[in-house]
Amino acid sequence: MIGNKKLALLSTATFSLALTGCMGAGGSIPSASAPITATESQQGADAHPKLLAEFGGRMTGPQAAYVEQIGKNIAVQSGLGNARQDFTVSLVNSSVNNAFAIPGGYIYTTRQLVGLMNNEAELAAVLGHEVGHVAARHSQRRQQTAQRNSILGTVGAILSGVLLGDSGIGNTLSKGFLQGSQLLTLRFSRTQELQADELGIQYLTKAGYDPQAMSTVLRSLALQNSLDASLQGRNASIPEWASTHPDPASRVSTASQKAQGLAGNVTNRDTFLSRIDGLLYGDDPEQGVIEGQRFIHPELKLSFSAPNGYYMVNGTRAVSINGQSGQAQMTLAPYSGNLDSYVRGVFSALGGEQQRLAPSSLQRTTVNGLKAAYGTARVNTGQRQVDVAVFAYEFAPNRAFHFQAIAPAGRISTFTPMFNSMRRISTSEANAIVPRRIDVVTARSSDTVASLGRRMAYGNAQEQRFRVLNGFSSNDVVRAGQKYKVVVRAR
């Protein structure tokens, strides 16, 4: 969600590059890669600042420098460039488990994904997988589609059928509801993902790392995705870096088999853990935080609660609210001081060029002391009817926020409790929001999985969270003298 430093909305339609977000059509594994071309370098340079802004900005400091170092070291194994300076590796401030790349040698990983890793070889594996996408030119193979539809249009086309059916209006509406950074990456084929896995394993071997790191990090990602799904009461099918396509367990097995018999044994576990100690984990308060069913933004001084049975995903520009019977987002748009015009403008943007979308009527109200306006529209998608609602709130003469929600016809009222929950928060409430960070601890002889799990700064599933964070299986135990990660409140 938008922080005070991130109030200017980006036009994501300007992203004509196909992001290799994942973890890609078939073909053999190239033994050597063609060098980065001048055209690719220019494409990457043009998209790079927009991409950084969309994913929370580029992090700086020792942790970011460490990620950059490892990323460049693994990237030179690809043959795309002859020197480390041919690549740009960025640690981005996002709480989503994701990694991606664009042509020109631009490689990205989120801090959340780095926090899930357990050694340096796994970091190299993730970044090597993304370099593999660039080396195999998977992005260019999807370029024509991306240019026709834009990234959001492509993602909208993939996901719109879930709720809206495959129709023009369904795709158009989905574009408006899929603005969060966690849904911005273009998906690649299973063949391409496996090819990027294999290329990443080759790079690991050349660099002397344990090639099994690809399979272990994929396993951790699959476990994290399953845990998130369980905690949110949903099916574990939300697109994530490790589950872009079905059957992530097969990806783990295939990667392990490809690594068997290959040279390399370096993991640098303790070095890695010491270097990520203190890394921000989960939501950044500058972008707002999700606490159970509540979203709280300490800088914008607002809060709301998702409906029962729905879960939220926090992005740089929007908070997505998802459930079986509908989806919504909380975001903002330019505001001139007229709520009626604001609501009509949001409807118009959701409809796009293909559909004139307008509310059947507009209502004014007050919600927890906030001036508000709302409207609904019933839309025929071609296969079914859906209701679209926009509910806007004035927070200042020049600032408004709104929900945009969609549900099957007659069921938009499921979001009414959420609409009515929007409120300002006090300064004391805002100051009480403290970020979480990774704390690397050395286990004592008396420590167990249960005892370290109790140190996790969560109100539920502490032991399960600890196991997934440290890559534990159900039978693994804590060993005295070894380093482990726990998540604590950063006071």
TrEMBL record:
One of its GO terms (cellular component) is membrane. Pfam families: Peptidase_M48. Gene3D superfamilies: Metalloproteases ('zincins'), catalytic domain. Its cofactor is Zn(2+). CDD domains: M48C_Oma1-like (cd07324). One of its GO terms (molecular function) is metalloendopeptidase activity. Keywords: Hydrolase, Metal-binding, Metalloprotease, Protease, Signal, Zinc. Residues 1-25 form the signal peptide. Residues 439-486 form the LysM domain. One of its GO terms (biological process) is proteolysis involved in protein catabolic process. This is M48 family metalloprotease. It comes from Parerythrobacter jejuensis.
